[in-house]
Design goal:
Two copies of one chain form a homodimer. By secondary structure, chain A is an alpha+beta fold. Chain A folds into three domains: 14-273, BirA Bifunctional Protein, domain 2 (2-Layer Sandwich); 283-389, 3-Layer(aba) Sandwich (Rossmann fold); 405-478, C-terminal domain of ProRS (Translation Initiation Factor IF3, 2-Layer Sandwich), CATH 3.30.110.30. Chain A has helices spanning 14-24, 41-60, 74-77, 81-87, 113-123, 168-188, 235-239, 264-273, 299-318, 333-342, 353-357, 378-403, 411-418, 433-443; strands spanning 28-30, 37-39, 64-65, 71-73, 92-97, 100-108, 132-141, 155-165, 194-198, 210-217, 223-233, 243-245, 251-253, 255-262, 290-294, 323-325, 347-351, 360-365, 370-374, 405-406, 424-429, 446-451, 473-478. In chain A, strand 20, helix 13 (411-418) and strand 21 (424-429) form a beta-alpha-beta unit. The first copy, chain A, is globular and about 80 Å long. At the A-B interface, strand 2, helix 2, strand 3, strand 4 and strand 5 of A face strand 2, helix 2, strand 3, strand 4 and strand 5 of B.
C-alpha cells in the first residue's frame, strides 16, 4: 500500500502539502461517503495514543467513562433555545427505521448535552449524588459543506466530558481544570504550545454561558482551535429540569460543564511539525518510534546483519520503545528510508555489514542529524532520546509562535498582518460586536480568545484597535481553521 | 445514585432478575430513545476492561485498528445479494442532512463489510499488500423490535475484524485463529466456558460462506451466542471488485474474513455468574476488585481506623489491584456491604477498632466466606487471590454446563428437554433443513453449532434425532437469546 507520489512544498501550497503528507503517511483517506473520512491504521494509532494519554488524565481527576445513545429525539435538541439554533442546521436526521417512517425523527448526535441531561435528571436526587463527572468517547456527526481530512469532517471522533455540580464555583473550577489539562497534554504530548482564554459571545458554544479554548498556531500562521471547555451555568439543567435537593432540603438546579477534543488534534499535530518530506511526529505519539533498516548485498551478509538487527529490536523493545524491523526483501534501503520518513518515524537505525563489524548502528533522526551509536548502548540511547525529543519540538514550535505574534497592534498593522503573513495579533478590544464583525469582514480574522492572564501583554492596551474607544480587554486575532 | 429496591430471585423470574441485577449494579439504564440503552460508568468500565484484553490479543496477532464511516450509501449494501437481504430490514436510514433531502439515503452501519471492501479495492494492488488485518471499535445500529439491555439493543458497541488474504487457506486459518482467540478470552477473562463450532446455513451471517461461533450456557439454561467468526470466501471481493496481482502477474480476488464481539458480552457475564444478591464479576473484569469498609463509632475510633484503612488502600494499589476505600459519612457499614455486593466487587475488607488492635482485617468474598487476614500480609493475599479466583468461577460454570448437557439425545428427550429445563442437547443431524425447522417449531430450540472436534461425542451419532435417517454430523440444540 505504498504511495510514491511527491509532496507539494509547504511554501507553494499549504493546503495541498497537508493533503500530500496525509496520503504519503497513510494517515487517512477520502471515503465514498460525502464528507466522511477513513482513518487508516497509522492515523488511528496516533489517535489511540492521544486517547490513552487523555483518558489517564481524565481518570486521575476523577472522571468516569460512560456511553449514551447515538440518536437524539428532535424534540430534545429543541429544549435549549440557543443550542438548537446552533446545531439544527448541521444535523443528519434518521427518518426511517426497520423499514418504517418514524413518528419522531432522530437526530444523529452533533453533541450529547441534551440526551445526557435527560438521564441526569433521573439519576440525580440529592447533593450526595454530586458531582457527576462523566466522559464519553464517541463519534459525532455535523453536516459540513466544505470538509478537510481531520480538520472538518461530517463524522468525527471525539471525547465529550459532561459534569454536574452543586455550586457555581465548583463548575467554574472544573472548566478551568480541564482547560489546564488540555493545555498540558497538548504541550507535553503533542509538543504544541497553545494559547488559552475565553471566547467572545459570537464564537462561544451554542448553549454555554462561557467557552474557554486552546488555540495553536500552525505553520501557515493560521490558528487551530484544538480544544474547548464550556461553563454551562444552569442552562441545560433548567431545560431538562435537572434538580437536586440541597443539604437544607431545598431544590436547586445543578451547575454544569462540558468539554471536548477530537480527531482534529491529529490535523493539528500534522500542521504544527511536519515538513516537505512528510510527517514529523513527536516521539510520544509516534506509533513507530524507531525503525531498524538492515542493509545487505550477499546472502551471507543478510544472515549476519539480520541476526544483529533482531538483537537490537529486542533490546529496544525491552527499553519500552515501539520498534519495527523492516526486513522486507526486494526493496532498496533508500526506498525504505523514504517511506519511513514520510510516516514520521522519529529515529531510524541503519545496520550494514560494516556496522556489524564495528559493533554499531547509524542513528538518523527524522528532524536531521546522523551519528553512529554503539550496539551495546542502544537501550540507553533510546531512553535518553525519549526524554529529550519532545522538548526540542516544543521549543521550536514556541519560537515559531513568538516570531509570529505581534503585541499592541495598531489598526493598520492588524489589517496588514491578517491580510498578509498571518499569526497572532494582540490588541485592545472595546467589547462591541460591531468592531469584531468589521475586522472579520475586512481581514477574515476572528478573535480567537480574550487571553488568560499569563498570556496578556503588560501593561494591557488602553484603546480598541478598531474604533479607538476605551478597551475593556485585550484580544488575540488570527485567521483560523 | 443508590438503588435500594430488591432483586427478584432467579428461580422466580430470570428475566426480571437480570434487569434487577443491572439496575442494582448501575451497569446500564433505559434511555428515552427507542431500543437504545445508556451504559453507565460501572457497566462501561467492564466493557473497557474487555476491550483492553481483546485489543491486546488482536494486536499481538498482527491486527491494526482503523476507523471507517458510520454511514453507508444504500447502494453499497445492495451489492452483495445475501447481505442486503439479511440486513436491509433492520436498518436506520438518514434521509436528511444539513436541512436538505439527500439524493441517496445513507444507512447507519449495521456492520461494515461493504464500506470496508470499497476502500480495500482502492488500497490493495498486489500480493505485497496482503494480508490486510484490520479491526474497528465502533457503534452499530440494527433496528430491533424487542430489546433487552446489553443482549439486544438498537444501538450497540462492538469490534469488527476484517481481513483480506491472498489464499483461501490463509483466510480459513484466520477464521480459526480468531475463534480460538475469542474462546480463550471468554474462558480466561470472563470465566465463561464456550462451545465452538460451525453454524448451519439458516443461522449463518448474511454474506458469509461459513460462520463459526462461540456459545455460552447461561444460568437459565439458554444459550448465548457470544462471538462469531466468518469465512467470507470471495463473496465481498467479487461484489466490490477487490482484486490483487499475484506473484505471477495474474489478477485474483482476495479471500476474506470478518469477526466480532459486542457489548452483549456484558450481558453474558451477568447471566453466567450473578446471584440473587446482585452482580458476580470475575476479578479480572471487576472495575473495583477490593473495597475497604472502615467501621467506627466515636470520632477517635474514626481517625485510627481510617489511618489504617488508608495504609491498606496504598498497599493493595501497589500490588496492582483496583481498590476503593468507602469512607462515606452517615452511612452504616451494612448499607455499604449491600451496595458493593450488588455491584459485584469480589472482595471486601472490613476494618474496625478491634481489627486495628489485632493488626488484621476481615476479608469477605463476594461468593461466600469470611476470614481474618493479617494487615502485613494483605498484598500477598491480594496477589494469591488474583491468581485463584477466576479459576473457581470457571470451574463452577464448567460443572454447570456439564450437568446441563445431554449427549446422544433421542427425539423424545430432545423435545422434553427443550420444552423443559433446557441446556445443551447433542444429537445426530441429517443435514436437511426441514428437520432443523421442524424442531424449531416444536421446541423453539435451534442448532447452536455443529460442534468442533474437541466437543464432539465419541462415537458420534449415527441417526438424525428427528427423521431417523443417516446423520451426516452431530449438532447441539438449545434455546437461545
Amino acid at each position: 500500500m505504498g504511495n510514491e507520489q511527491g509532496i507539494t512544498p509547504r511554501a507553494e501550497d499549504f493546503s495541498a502539502w497537508y493533503n500530500d503528507v496525509i496520503m504519503r503517511a497513510e494517515l487517512a483517506d477520502h471515503s465514498p461517503v460525502r464528507g466522511c473520512m477513513v482513518i487508516r491504521p497509522h492515523g488511528y494509532a496516533i489517535w489511540e495514543l492521544m486517547q490513552g494519554a487523555l483518558d489517564d488524565r481524565f481518570k486521575q481527576t476523577g472522571h468516569k467513562n460512560a456511553y449514551f445513545p447515538l440518536f437524539i429525539p428532535q424534540s430534545f435538541l429543541a429544549k435549549e433555545a440557543e443550542h438548537v439554533e446552533g446545531f439544527a442546521p448541521q444535523t443528519a436526521v434518521v427518518t426511517q427505521g426497520g423499514g418504517k417512517e418514524l413518528e419522531e425523527p432522530l437526530v444523529v448526535r452533533p453533541t450529547s448535552e441534551t440526551i445526557i441531561y435527560a438521564m441526569l435528571a433521573k439519576w440525580i436526587q440529592s447533593y450526595r449524588d454530586l458531582p457527576v463527572l462523566l466522559n464519553q468517547w464517541a463519534n459525532i456527526v455535523r453536516w459540513e459543506m466544505r470538509t478537510r481530512l481531520f480538520l472538518r469532517t461530517t463524522e468525527f471522533l471525539w471525547q465529550e466530558g459532561h459534569t454536574a455540580h452543586a455550586t457555581q464555583q465548583e463548575a467554574e473550577e472544573e472548566t478551568q481544570l480541564i482547560l489546564r489539562l488540555y493545555r498540558s497534554f497538548m504541550e507535553e504530548w503533542m509538543a504544541l504550545p497553545v494559547l488559552t482564554g475565553v471566547k467572545t459571545e459570537s464564537e462561544k458554544f451554542a448553549g454555554a454561558v462561557r467557552t474557554y479554548a486552546c488555540e495553536g498556531l500552525m505553520q501557515d500562521n493560521k490558528s487551530l482551535q484544538t480544544g474547548t471547555s464550556h461553563y454551562l451555568g444552569q442552562n441545560f439543567a433548567k431545560a431538562f429540569d435537572t434538580q437536586y435537593q440541597t443539604q437544607n432540603g431545598e431544590l436547586e438546579y445543578v451547575w454544569s460543564t462540558s468539554w471536548g477534543v477530537s480527531t482534529r488534534l491529529v490535523g493539528g499535530l500534522i500542521m504544527a511539525h511536519s515538513d516537505d518530506v512528510g510527517l514529523v511526529c513527536p516521539p510520544r505519539l509516534a506509533p513507530v518510534q524507531v525503525v531498524i533498516v538492515p542493509i545487505w548485498k550477499s546472502d551471507a551478509e543478510r544472515d549476519t546483519v539480520l541476526a544483529v538487527a533482531r538483537g537490537m529490536l529486542e533490546q529496544l523493545r525491552e527499553a519500552g520503545l515501539r520498534v519495527e524491523l523492516d526486513d522486507r526483501e526486494g526493496m532498496k534501503p533508500g526506498a525504505k528510508y523514504y517511506e519511513w520518513e514520510g510516516r514520521g518515524v522519529p529515529v531510524r537505525l541503519e545496520v550494514g555489514p560494516r556496522d556489524v563489524k564495528r559493533e554499531q548502528a547509524m542513528l538518523a533522526r527524522r528532524t536531521g542529524g546522523k551519528t553512529p551509536v554503539p550496539g551495546s548502548g542502544l537501550r540507553r540511547a533510546g531512553e535518553a532520546g525519549r526524554a529529550r525529543w519532545p522538548q526540542e519540538l516544543l521549543t521550536a514550535a514556541l519560537a515559531r509562535r513568538e516570531e509570529n505574534s505581534l503585541r499592541g497592534v495598531t489598526k493598520e498593522q492588524l489589517v496588514e498582518l491578517m491580510n498578509g503573513r498571518g499569526g497572532f495579533a494582540y490588541g485592545g478590544y472595546c467589547g462591541d460586536e460591531a468592531c469584531e464583525e468589521a475586522i472579520k469582514q475586512e481581514t477574515k480574522a476572528t478573535i480567537r480568545v480574550l487571553p488568560d492572564e499569563e498570556f496578556r501583554t503588560d501593561p494591557g492596551p488602553s484603546e480598541c484597535v478598531w474604533c479607538g474607544k476605551k478597551a475593556v480587554t485585550e484580544a488575540v486575532w488570527a485567521r483560523a481553521y
